[in-house]
Amino acid sequence: MESIYYALTWACHRRCKHCYDTRFRPYVRDYLAAVMAEGEASFRKIVANLPDSMIYKDPARPDADGNPSERVGRIIISGGEVMIDPVRETLFYPALDALTEKYGKNGVRLSMQTTGDILTPRMLDELREHNIWTVAIASMDDFHVGMEGAKREAFQEKLTEMFLAAGFEPAPKDGEAKGPSFLFFGAQPGQWIEELWPRGRAWENGLSTAGMETDFCARWSGARNFLNHGFAGSEVAIEPNGDVYPCCLKTKLPIGNLTEERLTDILDSLKGHPVFEALNQGDPLRMGESMGWTETRMRAESHTTTPQGLPYANPCIGCDRFHEEMLGPVIRELREARRQASIA
User: What's the CA gap between 295 and 183, in Å, rounded?
Assistant: First the structure.
């Protein structure tokens, strides 16, 4: 696959008002122990059920013979915040080592997302030792306390100096880095999730500005191309317990669980199904046609009211309702068919 987005833990040192999942927050004592136990119990099974190879074909970049070139895919590990204690030593580094053992040092690009505010030079050295290829600082916006406005520029300059001293290079905008690299992004105007997903605390706080014309499904980290494992554009998202989704926003229901089944088996079982093919095309308004939900119906179901009492409409809302009302039995039947096939 080109990319796998793996949220390793719910534990975080922040409770940002724009976060897409309310479970990302600080945990203490028994609650932290439970969150850690979930990740520790799952990550080795998840890694075992990931694709055997992370090499994918890219038709947009043909080789000398005109065939799709082969490229190395990436696994993006995030939280929460994977650099906090005890996540870093107990869960994050062991997960990185398990992935390197599976794919080899050069068989996958291991990336991570972090707020960056607790990084130290020693941590950067440790990240290189554990085969990290890219560090993405995902806090470059006004929603992160302490990084608003001019504070962000000073913070970025400080981190840049630290990265360069540790042997990381700025990630190029086009092409691939030649060595371990770093980059900065956030929920700022003109960037990837400027409008904010209608999820989690962003939804609770009325921060999403997406409308009906905003098709997150067709963007990177939406469901578009999620079925096309082995080719450019393919990506899925994984939760700490192994639940897997066709997009980072996460559909109302998971399509399977990687502590129980291989990822490629799950994806292959969905190929050809009209609902999942529509998602694969980045067209959620057509996902219900085969089950009686016309595009007109899906548009109507995509309207709702925010917690603040304001009208709101986005295809993600209709997708959620379709999953809730119609798709549960379909997913269960597909899962049972896979189970029976594995027994036969």
Answer: 39
